[in-house]
Amino acid sequence: MQTTAMRGRGIVAVLLLGLSAFSLQAKTTLTLGAAQNSLGSLPLVIAQQKGFFADEGLQVDTVSFKGGAPAVQALAGGSVAACICAADHAVRLQNRHLGGRVLVALTEHHGYGLVALANNPAAQLSDLRGKNVGITSPGSLTDNTLRYYISEKGLNAERDFRLVGIGTGGPMRAAIESGAVQAGMLTTPDVQAALADPRFKLIQDFRTLQYPALDLVVVDRWLNAHRDEAQRLTRAVIKAEQVIQTDPVAVQAGVDKMYPRLSPALRKVLAEEAPKLLSHDGKMAPQGYQLMVKMLKVADPTLSAPDYSAITVPDLLSKG
To answer: In terms of DSSP bridges, do strands 28-34 and 183-187 run parallel, antiparallel, or are they unpaired?
Structure first.
């Protein structure tokens, strides 16, 4: 005969199962599109490791794309909720009347350096005049950056240089080593890996520039329909950014997760650089946005740049 106590335990078990099932059903899945696998994505990795997404009732999945252009195409088409890409894509989306917004800033600084072989006689960008110089792709952050600094030196990117789209990471390094390009743009962790090798040297370091090089970019259509999810996503990422500024052990664990094939020494270097590179509060710096607009206008003088307030979502950040 079933006792009262047994019946009570059964009811509790059924309730717990019901609550568990409800929790699983209530979890919202968000798919993000990643333009690159750089250190800028570390806040998302740590948010996952620390359970910050789960705390917000989110299941966050990431799909990798070969660069910003296809990732943004997926964003505009609605197949991903947000793009892990440069803020300049938000500007271009607004120019296409698609309402691009920077939901959360991931990086505080530009992540690229211009790298050449150590025996290359060039000591600065202008010394590469008339040579092949590697960019990731036309219209990319690397393209815009080099065009801006070439113009700052009174030179013309079309007339005086040959900017060649190579891609990222391994292909770019191979192009530099083979002489297909005299120098090329590398970002984390590839720039640190190259500079740890005495066969390479740095021609120009852009990593000290305040620049929104990697962010979570969304479009208004999704943001207006999913404001609660956007708020929860923002909150989880900002919490991870704060951890990066205060918890070196968590930072090292995140870097180890992202780059298991790199040497422990190089992973240690990346963990030390992460707090300097990354945003500490999710806010895109206005100065960085203005520099980005200047760079974009060199490549496309007809570009209409929205006001800073029109491309950010400050009310969600303030509630983070």
So the answer is: unpaired
Which helix (DSSP H) or strand (DSSP E) does residue 232 occupy? helix 227-246
Query: What does the pLDDT read at residue 13?
Result: 52
Q: Are 134 and 186 a contacting pair, CB within 8 Å? A: no
- pTM, to two decimals: 0.84
Strands 132-135 and 183-187, by their bridges, are parallel
Q: Which domains does the chain have, with CATH numbers?
A: 28-110+210-318 (3.40.190.10), 112-205 (3.40.190.10)
Q: Would you give the distance in Å from CA 233 to the centre of its chain?
A: 15
pLDDT given at position 22: 45
Angle (deg, nearest 10), helices 227-246 and 42-49? 90
- Determine how many CB atoms are found less than 10 A away from the CB of residue 207: 20
- β-pairing, 100-105 vs 58-64, is unpaired
Q: 281: which 2 tokens?
A: 């509060």
Q: Cβ-count burial of 7 within 10 angstroms (0-12 exposed, 13-18 middle, 19+ buried)? A: exposed
User: pLDDT, tens digit, for every residue of 272-288?
Assistant: 999 999 999 999 999 99
Check: CB of residue 35 under 8 Å from CB of residue 65: yes
Express each pLDDT in 165-216 by its tens digit.
Answer: 998 888 999 999 999 999 999 988 899 999 999 999 999 999 999 999 999 9
